[in-house]
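User: My advisor, Dr. K., asked me to get a structural model of this assembly before our group meeting. I'm new to this, so sorry if the format is off. These are the inputs:
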Amino acid sequence: MHIDARTLPDGSLLEGDVCIVGAGAAGISLALEWAASSRTVLLLEGGGFQYEPAMQELYRGAIVGLPYYPLQAARLHQFGGTTGHWAGFCSTLDPIDFEKREWVSHSGWPLPRRELDPFYARAQSLLELGPDEYAAADWQRRDPTMVPLPVDPRVMWTKMWQFSPPTRFGTRYRNAIVDARNIHLYTHANVCELEANEAVRAIDGLRIRTLDGKELRARARVYVLACCSIQNARLLLASNRRAAGGLGNAHDNVGRFFMEHIEMPCAHLALARSHARYMKMYALELGTTKARGEMAVSAAVQRERRILNGTVSLEPGGLDETAKSTFEWGTPAMLDSLRAWGERGNPGPPPATSPGSTPAPLSFHLLTRLEQAPNPASRVMLGTERDALGMPRAMLDWRLTDLERRSFRVIYEVVGRELGRIGAGRVQVLDWVRGEGAWPGNLSGGWHHMGTTRMHVSPREGVVDPHCRVHDLANLYVAGASVYPTAGAANPTLTLVAMVLRLSDHLKSTLS
Amino acid sequence: MNRRRFLHLSALGVAAGAVSLGSGPARLTPHELLDLLGPETVRGLGRRYREMAPAADLLSAAPGRGGISHRVRDDFARGRTVVVEGWVLSVTEARQCALFSLLPA
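Assistant: The format is fine. Below is the predicted structure of the whole assembly, which you can bring to the meeting.
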């Protein structure tokens, strides 16, 4: 069932069993798990079914740390959320990403990777991926011409990615949501405040506003925030009527530990002709490729060299040119064209998503996606300016540490030596990777926002518990990448959906 | 070693530590790098390496029993690498580049 909140009388009360705030990949995945159940699910989406500039404007915020992408362009505020312009990269986190690493402060998840395995398997179909197989050998068996580089597995390995069509949740699952009688989808329903009870031990209701000035209220047994890392934190911080620092923030953790994947061009590879046959494994043609590998540094090397996790992808390109970073090529206009392509049903090849250099099969740009170290100083706060609904705007203070810088250097030392050792070619490392000090001007993330409501067993060190429930609030949960304690080197969406399915199972057992 | 000294040693046959292995000066050239990067880049790398390591024993780049490829691979495996103009090179091949840069273009 779908209702545009603007059509409801001012002061209306929406009631259900489960109330999900945000209808992106997390919110829709969660709602679908409850379709046809006996529970009434309220699914509150701030935007509508289409892109609306006025809705995007609500996401505008200030940047006060390292330069960052315009916040209103980095996320889509509409049904389907940011899957409306994502590229579909999916991979699992690695076991080491879940471990406590003594050289990475605040690392470690309160669950092992194997606990997510069954949920990763279930997430595959939601994202319209292939089989739940992420070993290079699996894909080589399917296609014997996909052969991984013969690197020493103690040093490097080939980490596999699968590619979603990409699934546009807003179109792919619209009918399933709207046709489900027990799912009540309200669009243009922006939640502006979580109302806690007097003891600040539970949520009593939500305050909703529409841009045309109506105010509604929602009430449910359980509430789930699923409106992305920046907005989840913003909403908790802004809900400060009964707790001065915001809800779930007794220990000043809400908004902290904002993480990105640092996505940068780092080196060139002059490939030996003898190794050209391995390149099919690492090739990517968006819209066509089902799976590909990226080079990655082994867990053993990460431990020995005390570095963060990262991968290296290969993109054909001349040795005399430098690839653009993700933020450089992915201008807001480019993302807009991706969204428009998605709205047309992803017809044909996607709009150019890379610099479009002439393929030169023996020379490659090496690009890295590096995990950001959890850092309490990297954070989302409330700004002084308010949006059209009266909510304080988000303020992002993105900060990196020396560990990220050193990790880039070590990764390319390792990659350069190992590719030289196997005779695959020679690696030329870019100046900024070898240097120290300030980050280069083309510093870029991957639009992957994580970590602002991190998971930890202790309320002193995390916002949510291992079941994604906000510490000290009996009926408030968080879904999405904001609960990640660490970021790993894989794009967050697959893990995000897997975590949502795990949360859904937990909620079903709780409510029963 | 500068160009004058290299040519002088070559003329005297001192460089024949390598040449006597049945190779001639061609065995001192970094064939693999030449294939990958071309002579102009290799020559530039050699000049830069001579600036970086003026005291390097360039003649140690002569092939041993296992052949030059083996030595280069062994360098990479043992971490005997040097970064020249950003390129991660084995020390042996960096010295080869330096020798190559001393040869007439």
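One thing worth pointing out at the meeting: The mean pLDDT of chain B is 78.

User: Perfect, thanks a lot.
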